[in-house]
Amino acid sequence: MYAEVAGFYARQMRRLDEGDAEGWAATFTEDGVCRLSTRPEPMRGRAALAAGARTAAAAIPAGERRRHMTGMFEIEARPGGILHVRANTVVYATGAGGEARVHQVCGCTDTLVRGPGGELLVKDRRIDVDGA
Amino acid sequence: MYAEVAGFYARQMRRLDEGDAEGWAATFTEDGVCRLSTRPEPMRGRAALAAGARTAAAAIPAGERRRHMTGMFEIEARPGGILHVRANTVVYATGAGGEARVHQVCGCTDTLVRGPGGELLVKDRRIDVDGA
Amino acid sequence: MYAEVAGFYARQMRRLDEGDAEGWAATFTEDGVCRLSTRPEPMRGRAALAAGARTAAAAIPAGERRRHMTGMFEIEARPGGILHVRANTVVYATGAGGEARVHQVCGCTDTLVRGPGGELLVKDRRIDVDGA
User: Fold this and answer.
1) Please, what is the angle between helix B2-17 and helix A2-17, to 10°?
2) Tens digits of per-residue pLDDT, C104-121?
3) CB 3.0-4.6 Å disulfide test: which of A13, A111, C29, C95 passes with A124?
4) SnoaL-like domain spans which residues (chains A, B, C) (predicted)?
5) Which residue of C has its CA nearest to A10?
6) What value of ipTM does the predicted structure carry?
7) Distance from CA of C70 to the nearest CA of A (A)
């Protein structure tokens, strides 16, 4: 289960880093919710999630590359096949000149469920951005 | 075993990040030792460990949030149910204004044993802080 | 498999951080290739790999400590016992005065095979350094 969960986050975050907003939104359930401590309203549903990812990508300065690292998983199996996952994510930013820095540090509290093919999907995510 | 060890470090470090000094100390054996390359004397026993964690927390500037990421586990099972673990830890700091940075990078060399309920506990930890 | 792969990267990168260029090169096949987005020519074979690692180590400023963190593994088993692995690596640098920073962020795309003793070895690695 650890391997499956860790692989899920790697794939999901890599889609964000590659600018695949739709592919990222597809890792949530149809009615999936993402609550960011930096936004007053949660994003609800894949269309809103994809739009949110596109807006975030558009706000990245030209030439800057972002990359997510997620880890520190605490995974708890709950009744009904639900997984409750706590994780930390660090987002790195590298400018066109190669200078790298920490962009953002956050904690994730997720409810994962199984999709129709048995695959993991995020039903509910809360992201607590440090310093916000 | 990998999953158990990785989950142990996630839980343990998260207690530090949440300011739970006693909860963190409780992840060591009663006579657990923590040797920091930045301190002349090791901390011995849970009371000293908790006091050390409280002192470290008190030294964090107001409004600054710290978060640990531990990874790069090399796990070796030794006779007597002992686990010898090498790991790296990066501590991030985020100020109240949201500016994030690397606070500290270190290597961990741990001896883990089983507690009365079969849970993992640190018997001996050596932390080598880079640049110190 | 996840545990084996994660442990392989931990051991391999730690050799680099400890300045063990030959030990690092030995985690590649005899004819192993490492392609860096920052170098026009790939390094081919263990002698060239070890020489490349020594050159990189010699370029580190005096008193600076580097440490790698690799994670975000996506592992795919392919026919013939080959593992295709995607991963992210962040390299941290800490100066003699203790000031730590992100040195480099990169993505790794690796082909791993089994050596004579069944151990994992890198047959082909591509490193995409962000901002380069």
Assistant:
1) 60
2) 999 999 999 999 999 999
3) A111
4) 2-118
5) C72
6) 0.96
7) 9
